[in-house]
Amino acid sequence: MAGHRAQWKGFLKVGEVSCGVALYTAASTSDRISFNTINIATGNRVNRIFVDSETEEPVPKEDQVKGFELENGRYVLISPEEIAAAVPESNKTLEIDAFIPCSAVDDVYFDKPYYLTPDRTSGDAFAVLRDGMKADKVAAIARTVLFRRMRTVLIRPHHKGLIATTLQYDYEVRSSKKAFERVPKVKIEGEMLDLAKHIISTKIGEFDPASFDDRYEEALAELVKAKVEGKSIPKRKKVEVSQPNDLLAALRESAGIARKSDDKPNRTAANANKGTGRQRAARGVAGKSAASKAAPQRKAG
Fold first, then answer.
1. Is 50 among the domain residues?
2. What's the whole-number mean pLDDT along residues 236-241?
3. CATH code, domain carrying 140
4. Residue 283's pLDDT is what?
5. Which of 2, 20, 71, 233 is most buried (CB neighbours < 10 A)?
6. What's the pLDDT at 244?
7. SS3 string of the chain?
């Protein structure tokens, strides 16, 4: 992938078939708005310093080691060399253990996605594995050492390449039974169920990531722009939660509104002209700066 650095290079292997591959990050947060920590008294950026929890004296980096807490205040110390020795040895091979139906893995186990591409000499072997998996509609379970940890990876065909998604271990995924144990048992039927199905039917669409709004980023961009321009910050509108005694009325009202949804403007087209929150903030600030520079010239004329 031009312009991107591979996160990992190695081999994809099943049986006696192997091909050279590379992993590239499929998702990035680098375009998100980020903040620095500032000393409000001086306006200077604050640096992070590690201090001793008892003496409150700064601890230089060479005196910092990892420690596992045995009990309150007692630790077993682990050196960087000991940690490095405990990391499984990597053979740089994604060894496929099994092929499974693409829908067989609960997505609660999904961790991070990566694009998996062949190297310049392995196009044929890569295509054989990719097209065979497409034909049989299966995904592959493989294991290897990634980023100093033994990882299980789910590999699926994706356009001309493959997607390799690292998976959470079972002990890392919390039980859904415990999470849902307080959800009440309520049976919805009759008009309520019919109205709910009707509302859903009027909202059926397609998965289009380009139409999704990152409202948090947009709100941050607007906040930055307002602060730069000295404007007041808009107050958030309070959301009213539907109560059991007015739920049916809310469903009826929603069904009526849903029938007029065709009159709403196309969000995808609107979003195409908006740009990212960061871009809009930059345009707003840049516009103000340009206007400020131009003002004296206009006055002189």
1. no
2. 71
3. 2.40.290.10
4. 44
5. 20
6. 67
7. CCCCCCCEEEEEEECCEEEEEEEEECCCCCCCCCCCCECCCCCCECCCCCECCCCCCECCHHHCCEEEEEECCEEEEECHHHHHHHCCCCCCEEEEEEEEECCCCCHHHEEEEEEEEECCCCHHHHHHHHHHHHHHCEEEEEEEEECCEEEEEEEEEECCEEEEEEECCHHHCCCHHHHCCCCCCCCCCCHHHHHHHHHHHHCCCCCCHHHCCCHHHHHHHHHHHHHHHCCCCCCCCCCCCCCHHHHHHHHHHHHHHHCCHHHCCCHHHHHHCCCCHHHHHHHHHHHHHHHHHHHHHHHHC
Average pLDDT over residues 3-21: 89
Question: Quick one: 98 and 197 in the same domain?
Answer: no
Same domain, yes or no: 118 and 15: yes
Residues 105 and 218 in one domain: no
Residue 231 lies in a domain: yes
pLDDT in tens, 106-144: 999 999 999 999 998 999 999 999 999 999 999 999 999
pTM of the model: 0.66
Total number of domains constituting the chain: 2
Identify the pLDDT of residue 155. 97
